[in-house]
Amino acid sequence: MLKPKTYHIALGSNKDDKFRNLQAAVNAIYVRVGNVKLISKVYKSPAFGFESDDFFNCCLVLESYLKPQKVLDILLEIETSLGRIRTTQNTYEARTIDLDIVFAEDDIINTKTLQVPHPEMSKRKFVLLPLNDIASKVKHPKSDKEVSVLLDECNDESVLEPIKIWLKNPSKQYNFSKYNYIAIEGNIGAGKTSLAAKMAYDFNAKLILERFADNPFLPKFYEDANRYAFTLEMSFLADRYQQFSDDLSQLDLFKDFIVSDYDVFKSLIFSKITLNDDEFSLYRKLFYLMYKDIAKPELYVYLYQNTERLQQNIKKRGRDYEQNIADDYLEKINTGYLDFLKTQKDFKVKIIDVSDRDFVENRKDYLWVLSEICGC
């Protein structure tokens, strides 16, 4: 999974309800651009370069999969949506909201519409002071000086006053740390790995991913299911047992919870479909002997997608051995999962229909799924 790019964004407002404008901008950035990791204090500062009301200024750390120009385009749209009207005059002016990209990691960009690092940042205390709160050790990619050094060297003598109200980070509305272990499940191509990985990255969770790619029997099974079904399911049984025994027993003090892209009971669901009755009877006995002491998830999330959408996803990710999976097989798996979940009383179950959602490419859909999972 690709890592998002880290941006540092400066925010300012000196019209109407200034604090409310900043909070609205933070919320919009979170919904439309990416994950807000840190927010500085808010500082009251005098208008810079012109006579006007005092500003409220802050900075935030943002992680986004979008490219810098796209981030800028959306920031400008957010400014407009919050009431900023840009004039053609090349002068400073009062504004409802002002949003600037200060850093985009080590990128140096100089186009007609975008200059990164921000060319005036080193001269402006109202940028450097809040930036120092959240990124004191980050280096300017041109001068190679840390933000704390740039602040010390800044000649701006403006007096800034921290206000005693903190902006709220929108990500805090999603509270997953109340769970020790969340399992994300779904059919082939439902997106469970993508969702688990995004959640782990955004919410500081330990990630457990199924090691299916290392199973040499999987391609053979899709070529000759009758011949390789029992061998495949037994190899999965052993591998999943080893992985869960290792990963669930190793506490990580620096992570808030565990999220996995599968649950051990998928072994029973798939084996019931692929094995004949005698093989399944033996398999089930072995399963319960091995898994009786394995921890169960407190929250079990099942991502439901209809068969047509599953086939689209399977074709899109392009694994050769999956390209001829029959609709009937996918429908049996969906039925197997849903029948299994109806009988479960040991953990909380959430079934989420994502057939019309694209939580990988569409951030609003991703946030919708998060809301469905945490019930917020």
Structure classification: alpha/beta
**Element-level helix/strand string:** EHEEEHEEEHHEEHEHHEHHEHHEH
Total count of domains: 2
For the largest beta-sheet, the strand count, sense and barrel status come to: 6 strands, antiparallel
**Remind me, CATH topology of the largest domain?**
Rossmann fold
* Silhouette: elongated
Proportion of residues in β-strands = 15-25%
Q: Give me the number of helical elements.
A: 12
Q: Summarize model confidence as the mean pLDDT.
A: 91
Beginning-to-end CA distance, first to last residue: 27 Å
- The CATH class of the largest domain is Alpha Beta
Classify the helix fraction into a percent range. Answer: 40-55%
Please count the beta strands (DSSP E, at least 2 residues each). 13
Uncertain spans, ≥5 residues at pLDDT below 50? Answer: none
- Named at the architecture level, the CATH assignment of the largest domain is 3-Layer(aba) Sandwich
List the helices and strands and how they pair.
Blueprint: E1 5-13, H1 18-32, E2 35-39, E3 43-45, E4 55-64, H2 68-81, E5 98-104, E6 109-110, E7 115-116, H3 125-135, H4 147-153, E8 161-162, E9 181-186, H5 192-202, E10 205-208, H6 217-223, H7 225-249, E11 257-260, H8 266-274, H9 277-291, E12 299-304, H10 307-317, H11 327-342, E13 348-353, H12 363-374
Parallel strand pairs: 9-11, 9-12, 10-11, 12-13
Antiparallel strand pairs: 1-4, 1-5, 2-4, 3-4, 3-8, 6-7
Helix pairs in contact: 1-2, 3-4, 6-7, 7-8, 7-9, 8-9, 8-11
